[in-house]
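chain below, 253 aa
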Amino acid sequence: MNDNNKAGRCSYILLLIVLSILPAAVLAGDTSGKWSGAHGGCPDDGCGKGGSGADNGVGNPIHMGTGNKFQEVPVWESGGAFPLAFKWFYNSRLRPDTNTTFFRGGWTHSYSERITESQVSGALHVFVHQDSGRIVDFKEQPPNSGAFVGDEKNESAALYGKLRREGSGVNAHYVFTSPDDIDYIFDPSGKLSAVENRSNGFRHELAYVYTPNTTILERIDVTHGNGQTINLNFQAGGTELASVTVAGGETYT
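prediction:
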């Protein structure tokens, strides 16, 4: 056998070995979802807070002007169009309160967005609390119009998004459109009820499950239009996230 034939045979054998060890999902095109490196390892007591995990790799910035520490940790993403996705976020400027759900004390998470209102100097201000911990302030202008503009710190809709009010009376609710053209739809109480991709119409619907006869949150079920679901399971008290169960039944705790 000449050298060219030997090289070709070796290449063929190597290809067979590689194909034999690749997951079937990789070969077929994974539409069932995937875990990132965060699964089973982060966040923990050190990750994102200046501890043992603080300087691991990239994407772990501290804002040099404000000293704010921010970290985004992808955990899981489903397959298909406008996939369900779950992430943890650490934002050192965020202060825990009873209206925000957290994981392990200081991490916020996907699908935790909410709306609050406040009168400031006689004008209605609506605050969009994003899953990353950022709070975007919108002012109703003119009064009672249902039209909103960003305050002086976030006037640019291209950078901070847009807010509008839809419906009237008890059915009045807010819709926040992010800079990447995703609608976050809130119910009249300010809770996130759906997330919709404006370009293709796919939605993630949220359903809140409470302890019977109480307002204590037990679970948030997030369902994609294709039927896939993520379950966010809460500890007793309803403000601390205990685990996440994704499509296929795997659970992160």
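The two ends are 57 Å apart (CA to CA). Residues 7 and 13 are 10 Å apart (CA to CA).
thats it, cya
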